From TrEMBL:
Domain of life per record: Bacteria
PANTHER family linked: LIPOPROTEIN YIAD-RELATED, STATOR ELEMENT OF FLAGELLAR MOTOR COMPLEX
Record field: transmembrane: 20-41
Pfam families: MotB_plug, OmpA
Protein's recorded name: Flagellar motor protein MotB
UniProt family annotation: Belongs to the MotB family.
UniProt topology in membrane: Single-pass membrane protein
Segments forming domain OmpA-like: 113-234
Keyword terms, alphabetized: Cell membrane, Cell outer membrane, Cell projection, Cilium, Flagellum, Membrane, Transmembrane, Transmembrane helix
Localization in the cell: Cell membrane; Cell outer membrane
Length: 259
């Protein structure tokens, strides 16, 4: 506050906010910034959210069973994931991209709605009609093992073949061949790459998912491949086999007769 003394002359009157108010305002601003940072790093716990909403609605008598399986939108992957897992996922994608650029050739990287795919030509990994990994292909899998080892979600290893039928004592059809090749890669990653077994899944698709029409040897060679699908969080659900499967036979067994 100022008191007018004359034309253009002002003199402080001594009135105004006390000195402690400035320090108090700075403290409140710092607390606000602190809580904003805490909120920005927090994640939503779906289980606690579901229990909280269910408890409130049960108490009010308005429980909606659709809230037992809420569809929550959580960026960046439309699934519920922690900040640490998302940082690991982005780090792995950058490492894979750098490896693909360095090696090139038989190694490709494809972004899809299912997740990041790493594609390797089948003739690089296996001989025709066999499921044993070529010794010269093992260094390639060793290069991929470290980022796969750090990937926080499930990694699907898919085996694919062309449409040329196979019928041997070991592989009666392309289904057995594609599944055996995927299993060989998974087994190698576990034993030599030290990738956790519960993070890997082996799948065989035979010739059901070609990337090119099977019209000549060139296109058939493209279809003979192994792909790594780095799945997203929402794909670690009922679409995949869980780590523990409940006994589905016991409830259907007949009850023992009472004496």
């Amino acid at each position: 506050m100022f008191r007018k003394m004359g034309p253009g002359d002002f003199e402080p009157t001594g009135e105004g906010a006390p000195d402690w108010a400035v320090t108090y305002g700075d403290l409140m601003s710092l607390l606000l910034v602190f809580f904003v940072l805490i909120a920005s790093y927090s994640t939503l716990d779906v289980v606690k959210y579901r229990d909280l909403v269910g408890s409130v609605q049960t108490a009010l008598g308005t429980r909606d069973r659709t809230l037992d399986n809420p569809q929550l939108d959580s960026s960046p992957t439309a699934g519920i994931a922690s900040a640490a897992e998302e940082r690991e996922r982005r780090w792995v994608e950058r490492e894979v991209e750098a490896t693909v650029r360095e090696i090139g050739g038989p190694l490709q990287m494809i972004h899809s709605r299912e997740g990041l795919r790493i594609r390797i030509d089948g003739q690089v990994l296996f001989e025709t009609g066999k499921s044993e990994i070529r010794p010269e292909a093992m260094p390639l899998l060793q290069r991929l093992a470290p980022p796969l080892r750090r990937y926080p979600y499930r990694v699907l290893v898919e085996g694919h073949t062309d449409d040329v039928p196979i019928q041997t004592a070991l592989f009666p059809s392309n289904w057995e061949l594609s599944a055996a090749r995927a299993a060989s890669v998974v087994r190698y990653l576990i034993s030599q790459g030290e990738v956790r077994p519960d993070h890997l899944t082996a799948l065989g698709y035979a010739d059901t998912r070609p990337v090119a029409p099977n019209v000549d040897e060139t296109t058939r060679a493209r279809n003979r491949r192994v792909e790594f699908l780095l799945s997203l969080p929402q794909q670690n659900g009922p679409d995949l086999v869980p780590n523990q499967i409940p006994d589905s036979i016991a409830p259907f067994l007949p009850e023992p007769e009472k004496p």
